[in-house]
């Protein structure tokens, strides 16, 4: 629903709860003519979940890429930096003038043809057909907790989330900080405690930005040979990396997700069957919007469809039974309490499995016999074979052979939720997390320790813990929204060597957050210690420490811009 603002512009609201009533929180302010333009390129111009349409892939990709580092909603960004920007040659690329408003015709044609396509898909009956059509979905003003649930569906989808290191999160809309106000919490006895705590966390985050900026600037003054722009960007990233731990998990973020039909069908089913109201709302809206673009690919995710009902029943029964066994047998198992990463599982025979798999393509022999052969090779010959897979690698983007996937490792990790958000995005691995809690302590950035800011930082975190402890006794799942991101979360990774190589070499680079850089470095170290033959596959892991880690990347980016004129 829209309302006419005094300015004559139309204001499209999202909804949040306050004092048991609903108030609007704006998603974007557009004129009537701008709305006409937008309606051709998005499935709706009013809600926080919508799909892109009638746009070439190059524009959709560029738009999503820009999205993660912008404070603007996707529709505002599309208007300002693409449609109305003469440099983009938008009309020429799309092949359509801005006065052409035939977007509804596409929706009607898609719906009209749905029965025809459904018959074809049902006739061939292969689930993989759902991977042949896709869409770009925008999901705005959702909690960071919801973003993780969406990113849990890894294969077939590519998510991009608003960054906490490039964007300040202390903006207010209509005088309110932007955090998700969970409906059950907002109608419970914990309502005032929840609101007060989240507002205090945001207040502290905002308050500490200026003094921390001055403190870091004093410790790491700008080199005269470095541009002001690159230095300012690196300084801001450093400050926001330090302070992101104050943000509650309910802080609102924006996401862009590109995925095929099979991915979206599974994602929507999971969201619709989730316990939390926010996930169910996102699932319902995603189904509604994607049905305008790829209806035949996601029809089985509809709440009334027999496949969804069956899946939801299975999931609920399974969770209930596992929970029963956990309560019966696993309550006395000691939790991991020390922050860090532990290698808890690997196979020493995997050296020969990798080596044998490397030979497989070049022979007619069986894999089992080749792997047995490698056990008999002299040590120097085995080393020489393994070296062939990495000696000529010149950078981390040179991918190792799939033979490395025959070695796998299990890691148990306890680190702050901010770090988990970064590492969670790696898709070619098996991972699972426990509920976000305040039971395992929190992370305090080194830059804050010993300064006057430390007491305020810790006070805010302790206030978050007090609220969590009160709420979680009755509402453990909903209580996650109030947990500050500095608190540790417990999770595991089960990952093959090839994927681990990519993760460690990527996440250890200078531009990365220092805490996840440490975890990436430590995973490589522990594997190299347990399996020395595999150390050679981590040749581009960066073990150095950096003070303004983003500075080099910002300088290179500025040089690229200058080179393009």
Structure description:
The structure is a single chain. Helix 2 packs across helix 3, helix 8 runs antiparallel to helix 9 and helix 8 runs antiparallel to helix 18 (453-472). It is built from 21 helices and 13 strands. 47% of the residues lie in helices and 14% in strands. The longest helix has 29 residues, at 191-219. The protein has 565 residues and is α+β, with helices and mostly antiparallel strands. It has helices at 32-38, 57-67, 74-83, 90-94, 103-124, 144-152, 183-186, 191-219, 228-243, 261-272, 277-290, 295-298, 306-329, 350-360, 367-376, 379-387, 417-423, 453-472, 497-507, 514-530, 551-563; strands at residues 3-4, 10-18, 21-30, 49-51, 134-143, 157-161, 172-173, 176-177, 252-260, 340-346, 408-416, 430-433, 488-496. It is globular, with a radius of gyration of 25 Å. The chain has a four-stranded antiparallel sheet with strand order 4-5-9-6, with helices on both faces. It has a four-stranded antiparallel sheet with strand order 10-11-13-12. A three-stranded antiparallel sheet has the order 1-2-3. The protein has three domains: 3-163 and 252-302, no CATH class; 172-246 and 444-485, no CATH class; 343-432 and 490-563, Gyrase A, domain 2.
